[in-house]
Amino acid sequence: MTKALEKSVGRALLVTARLHRARMGERLNALGLFPGQEQALKALQPAPMTMGELATLLRVKPPTVSKTIGRLSLQGLVTREGGGRDGRLVQVALTETGHKTALALDAVWTQVEEELLDKLDGKERKQLRRLLRKAAKGLSKAGVEIDDPEADGDEVDSDA
């Protein structure tokens, strides 16, 4: 490996992201889920939404959401229903089992987050979050918002 690659922040971020995804995958597998499905479940936890709204929120294409929701539906975690005045709009909602699974995801996320940040103190954790948000802004295209309500505000985290 070249010295430039060894010092690359992008490569370090990629390696960390892959390790995080693998660890999440292990934990999600124990719940019968695949990576990506947890995001849909957590997005639907507060309230039902249309497939289009879910695709926008998750920043994926509609066919990706359709595939994910199809799988979650087969697992009995979500339901799809024609909604409102326009029968073409499909509302997606969590089932009772889906709500329980979404709640269980909080513990999974916390466990993996603790592993990820285990070697960092509170100040370093806060600094890392701030720097990653700043880097994400640098990569984002004009007009694309980062859907993180805390991205510009002061953090009030217990580990800060």
List keywords for this structure.
Arc Repressor Mutant, subunit A; 3-stranded antiparallel beta sheet; mainly alpha; 3 strands; disordered C terminus; DNA-binding transcription factor activity; 160 residues; single chain
Q: Helix coverage percent of residues?
A: 55-70%
CATH class: Mainly Alpha
What about the largest sheet? 3 strands, antiparallel
User: What is the name of the CATH architecture?
Assistant: Orthogonal Bundle
Strand content: 5-15%
Distance between the termini: 36 Å
Compressed to H and E, one letter per element, the order equals HHHEHHEEHH
Structural domain count: 1
What radius of gyration results from the CA coordinates? Answer: 18 Å
Tell me briefly what this model is.
This protein is 59% helix and 8% strand. With 160 residues, the chain is mostly helical. Strand 2 (78-82) and strand 3 (90-94) form a beta hairpin.
Report on this structure.
The chain has 160 residues and is mainly α. It has a single domain, classed as Winged helix-like DNA-binding domain superfamily/Winged helix DNA-binding domain (Arc Repressor Mutant, subunit A, Orthogonal Bundle). A three-stranded antiparallel beta sheet has the order 1-3-2. α2 crosses α6 and α4 crosses α5. The radius of gyration is 18 Å and the shape is elongated. The two termini are 36 Å apart.
